[in-house]
Design brief:
It comes from Sphingomonas glacialis. The structure is a single chain. The chain has 20 helices and 21 strands. It is α+β, with helices and mostly antiparallel strands. A five-stranded antiparallel beta sheet has the order 2-1-5-4-3, sandwiched between helices. The termini are far apart.
């Protein structure tokens, strides 16, 4: 018979009152089993966990207290301890539908002779630890997944600057494998011109003088090619604040830098071109209506190098009033149009100059007007050439009078005033002058006729040579009396003797007169076509009458 069989309540040292109070204060579960697998002791925590009082547990069998589901696991561990082996194991205890993860330590209690007289049990709840471990595993898995599949380069280095982990994106960026890069000092793959700046900030990070840093950085590929990047670095610190790892994110911006350089080159070339053509750039912020000019344009307009010294009102005042409406940007401000090209006359440091201005509206993402940008260049020479060409196209080269095209252009202008007087003129016997005296005399006669016609009418009247020996005079905004008086002056001046050299030119003129208003719904040009037919009829009536007088002088 064992000691426990003879004395089932044999006192263990653990049963001492002072020790019992201490054990009751522990958060862990403490129990003592005899060789018969009956409880000899259970602390207050163990009893509370089972929902019993300690006195209800002492003397009870292990199977009775732990239950049939848990008994096989607990019994096996107790029996190993009764054989003299200390055992620690993690297992799950079930309480109905509830389960707890625990760690149990089973320690044999040896008597003075070295025999096992019981088993001391310490159980701790490790559910929280298990949950934490699971979360750590999950977090590490998420980090690994994000690290390896990140679209930007990611690197983990130790405090010495040697890379411990390198993701695929960074390895691809440098044209190497991750295995080639692991163990490499980051300074060895940094462009020489960027090593000092990166190393200085890295050391400041390790010393705790900064929590992170960012910089534009160049790396070197395996073949020596430069990779432009944006680098962001932060430290992972231990509980004492000491950095244990450094994490870097690297974004390849080589294409962006290339595009920026190309844009800078384009802008520089454009600025040089603008310096050469007289003019410049400007823009208007639609919300504030702030107007800013490029330095070259500022110099062209006011002679100052200070960009933006003229506001929009000042600039508008420099536009010649007759062309100011054409220069308006209101339609762009309102967003009714997106771009336009206009011409206007501008007062500049060099005097009035004709300018061509191309304007474009930039819109916000919601479509509202945001900014108006424009480029304005001096086209004065082109404008003068165009005017000269238009004048030449509408002018008779011999006499300097309007030709039929020029007359049509004047009639097409809205300023043509009505009522309109029309005087049709045809020179008599002009062909005979050409035939008998030569074309040089004939040309001189035509020039003389032109001069006499100009002298006979107002500067605002239109005088034209329609072709050959046919002329016309248009008298806008004239009464019938004024037109009749003008026609009489014309007839008198053209029938006065014309002398060329020592010869008197035998020439005279026939005149037909029409007074008219424009037909409703027709333009001045359309109305004039009908008027001219009537003037022709009157002219040839006058010509026939003159011929009849020549045929019958009596």
């Amino acid at each position: 018979m064992t000691k426990f069989d003879a004395d089932p309540i044999w006192p263990s040292p653990l049963m001492l009152p002072s020790a019992s109070r201490l054990l009751d204060m522990l958060p862990g579960l403490v129990a003592y089993f005899g060789p018969d697998l009956r409880y000899r002791y259970a602390n207050a925590t163990y009893a509370a966990w089972r929902g019993l009082a300690p006195a209800q547990i002492v003397g009870s069998s292990c199977r009775e207290i732990v239950g049939e589901t848990n008994y096989p696991t607990v019994r096996g561990l107790i029996e190993q301890a009764l054989e003299g082996n200390s055992v620690t194991a993690e297992y799950t205890l079930f309480d109905g539908a509830n389960a707890r993860d625990v760690q149990g330590s089973y320690v044999p209690d040896l008597d003075a002779t070295g025999q096992v007289c019981g088993v001391v049990l310490l159980v701790t709840d490790i559910s929280v630890r298990r949950d934490l471990e699971a979360r750590i595993v999950e977090t590490e898995g998420m980090f690994d997944d994000a690290f390896h599949h990140a679209p930007v380069g990611m690197v983990v280095t130790n405090p010495d600057g040697r890379m411990e982990r390198v993701n695929r994106a960074f390895a691809t960026m440098l044209g190497m494998s991750s295995a080639q890069l692991v163990g490499t000092d980051f300074r060895a793959i940094t462009h020489p011109d960027d090593v000092d700046a990166d190393d200085r900030q890295f050391r400041q990070l390790l010393a705790g003088r900064r929590s992170s840093y960012r910089m534009d950085k160049r790396y070197l590929r395996a073949g020596g090619e430069i990779v432009h990047t944006t680098l962001a670095v932060s430290a992972v610190r231990g509980l004492d604040g000491t950095p244990v790892r450094v994490i870097a994110q690297i974004e390849d911006v080589s294409e962006r830098r290339k595009a920026e350089r190309e844009q800078q080159e384009v802008t520089a070339r454009l600025m040089l071109a603008m310096e050469a053509v007289r003019g410049g750039f400007w823009h208007i912020d639609v919300e504030t209506m702030r107007f800013e000019m490029s330095p070259s344009f500022q110099r062209f307009v006011s002679g100052s190098d200070t960009a933006g010294s003229l506001d929009l009102e000042d600039y508008a005042e420099r536009i010649v009033p007759a062309t100011r409406d054409a220069a308006s940007v209101q339609a762009l401000v309102d967003g009714t149009i997106d771009e336009t090209s206009v011409e206007y006359e501008l007062e500049t440091i060099a005097g009035p100059r004709w300018m061509r201005c191309d304007r474009r509206l930039l819109r916000a993402p919601d479509g509202s007007p945001l900014r108006i940008v424009g480029v304005t260049i001096d086209i004065s020479e082109d404008h003068e050439r165009q005017l000269a060409a238009e004048t030449a196209a509408g002018t008779d080269p011999l006499t300097g009078l309007l030709n039929r095209r020029g007359l049509d252009q004047r009639l097409g202008q809205p300023s043509t005033g009505w009522p309109l007087g029309v005087v049709a003129i045809d020179l008599d016997r002009f062909k005979a002058v050409n035939d008998s005296m030569g074309h040089s005399v004939g040309d001189a006669v035509l020039v003389e006729v032109a001069q006499r016609l100009r002298a006979a009418v107002r500067p605002t009247d239109y005088v034209a040579r329609l072709g050959g020996d046919e002329f016309a005079v248009l008298l806008p905004e004239s009464s019938a009396e004024r037109v009749a008086a003008a026609a009489e002056r014309i007839e008198v001046t053209l029938n006065a003797p014309m002398v060329q050299g020592d010869a008197v030119v035998p020439i005279s003129a026939s005149v037909g007169v029409v007074m008219t208003e424009p037909d409703d719904g027709k333009t001045a040009l359309e109305s004039f076509t009908a008027v001219w037919r009537r003037a022709d009829v009157a002219l040839y009536a006058a010509k026939r009458a003159r011929q009849e007088r020549w045929a019958d002088p009596a």
